[in-house]
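P.,

For your records, the input lines for the assembly:
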Amino acid sequence: MDNKQLILADILRRVEKPARYTGGEWNEVVKDHRATAVKMVLAFPDIYEVGMSHLGSHILYQVVNSRPDALLERVYAPWGDMEMELKQAGLPLFSLETKTPLKEFDLVGFTLQYEMTYTNILNMLALGNIPIRAAERDEGDPFVLAGGPCAYNVEPLAPFFDFVVLGEAEEVLGDIIDAFKDWRQKQGRRQDFLQDLVHIPGVYVPSLYDVRYRPDGSIEGVYPRQPDVPERVVKRVVRDLDRALFSTKPVVPYIDVVHNRAMIELFRGCARGCRFCQAGMIYRPVRERSRETLLKQAQELLASTGYDEISLSSLSSLDYSQIVQLIDDLVNSHGPAGVRVSLPSLRVDSFAVEQAQKIQQVRRSSVTFAPEAGSQRLRNVINKNVTEEDLLTAVRSAAEAGWRAFKLYFMIGLPTETDDDVLAIANLADKVANLSLSRGQITRVTVSTSNFVPKPHTPFQWEGQLPREELKRRQLLLNNKIRGRKLEHRWHAPEQSFLEAVFSKGDRRLADVLERAWQLGCRLDGWSEYFSFDRWEQAFADVGVDPAYWANRTIGIDEVLPWEHLDPGIKRDFLLAERMRGIQGKTTVDCSRDKCSGCGVCPTLEIPIRRRGEQE
Amino acid sequence: MKIRARIAKGEAVRFISHLDLVGAVEKAVRRAKLPVALSEGFTPRLKISFASALALGATSEGEYADFELSEPLAAGEFSQRLNKELPPGIRILAAQPVADNSPALMAKVVAASYQVEGMVTNADEVSLASSWDKFLQQPEIIITKTTKRKTDQVDIRPLIIKAQFYPNDIYHWELLLATGQKGNLRPEQLLQAFFAFAHVQGEVSRIHRTNLFIERWGQLVSPLARLRLPDEVGEV
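Structure tokens returned:
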């Protein structure tokens, strides 16, 4: 062992869950750095247990490592104890596979899954001895890139990244690696590579755009600095999932992680059209994998991992066109070997309950449904096409099947919400708790309410979030109404939701706040052990900006949105029309089952419009 | 049919917990498609029972587990196939069939042997060696054991079966300690008590379990020791 390894072994004796940092798991890919042209590290800005549960990372790991000329290693955000130990020992943040410092990679790629991880990105760069701002990096530094859902409004983070990938990265990443090899062969300068990247569809280079503001603070426009830089960057998608490489040999963690099971991906996209849901908009169109492909991938996955559970992961898995047959096939072929099939979430209907029963999820302690809003009126506003009857029927069939505890998810502060809508949640929970069953009764109903966060590229992108005091008042209003020994209310404090709104709807002026917050010690903000709203308030004050401007202000429809040049393929007119229909309480059909709703994504991406289950 | 295996937990997996080790072996069994029996019920589990939990951070060449098979398989083939699917650091060192009705290993284990390394900052080796002798000469050694629910005063002297201190360049201990349901002493508990007794700043830097022992006719033997083979009787 060399000196570094000795220091590391010494550190690891002292930190909590040292296996977060040791690597060496089954299916880990370790390549020779000297014999591999392009060296990349996938940086997940949250702890190991969260990052290892992310399917997209597993896919990219296999995609890049299947190339002989490239390698992809992993690094996660260190917990506070490990950060302290690294600093004290003077060790830089390193990859799990080969313990290589971040700075020694060619490409450092972050995935942006949620806003509360943003300070972790700065922290990981700094711990990796990489200048946090792209403008401060020079020829010897890696290129720092980002992708994932929050990339669709990466603006608050724009100065920290050299470039950003919009959409599904498995193909784009290949193009980027090729371009990187070309650039290095030409012995180009750092800036030349960014110029090359502009020509790859789906790649956004923030430094090649100027943002200009009006005197009132709103955005005048986002302007390319050169003629060959596209005005809008349109996302990339995989056209045929059956031909796309999948994660069939994922790294198998030793320690327990959030999703500790094999995962197959039935389809991408969801066309149910819930108006608050960003995933439902940005991942369109719906593209299914064939059942044959899925069964083959399940077989390979179980053989390569040894997991005893396989999860059918997708945005709304039960919407898969051949779901019944698929579940039957999986249960029949793997059940006898003790493998369980599981669903990540349940749709609110009795069909969902039937399927859950079939895979014996019945034995789980409770079942969760997400009606999202308490009144029919408000459910129509958000286009959550679920009726009270649907919910009660679903609960009844689950209860008859043996479930006795239920969790119900709602949002507070949705557009047009009144106190009556809030109180309707308590009413609905009461009805669920007091359902009369043929025998026995429901023992527990947990109502969980989050605060609505308006998201870019959704029909509600213009909306402001309600002020924190008002969110709190409504949460308490509900809290006082949820009474009874069977009922329990859990709610999210509005502070985190407020920051989520700020950064999800923010622009480049917030980068200074992120940097300041990080300097003040903000990190791991998604963890209550670390989250400190006081520090964030301090950061906004130090930079001299009012966060309410981004979170609470309703943006005028004539304004330029900070994310308007980042294009997931959905037309602005569609979002605007959906917003109007929502406010009027009109619902919109699921285009994968019914007629096209004209969101524009298929024509923009030149993908033929197809209904669920139809083959090419 | 039941196969008992001796398992090594090496440097590469030093920092995983006992539960993680069990999980890694279970996954390897499934990858190797070994005919290990499944329990009944809604969440069937592989019938594998480990003898004794090893602390996170420790290595071992003396972990034991019983595997209940649903169809016969030669012990040699069993370990060969399993070794192919085990991650680096985890190894089957030996395996042999045991009687189907043999009692659970966990209930039978009475002792464990360890090699331990430690660092002491404020004492020389001569005084430390003499403190060690005095420490062991005590008729009783009381330590405070804290669990989640309570704190207990326990005399650990009867739990020390054999203990040697080698004050070389690196301080090194060879220990044989009571382990299991009738009395359990972990090496770090013993050394903490010693450091306190000797009034020194000490730290345990490395723990390696060399073997586990069951009792047979009054003697400590390895769980894989065959009957009437005195050469296999554990030497410590």
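Two observations worth noting. The radius of gyration of chain B is 19 Å. The interface with chain A takes residues 12-13, 15-17, 19-20, 23-24, 26-31, 38, 42-46, 56-57, 85, 87-89, 205 of chain B (CB under 8 Å).

Regards
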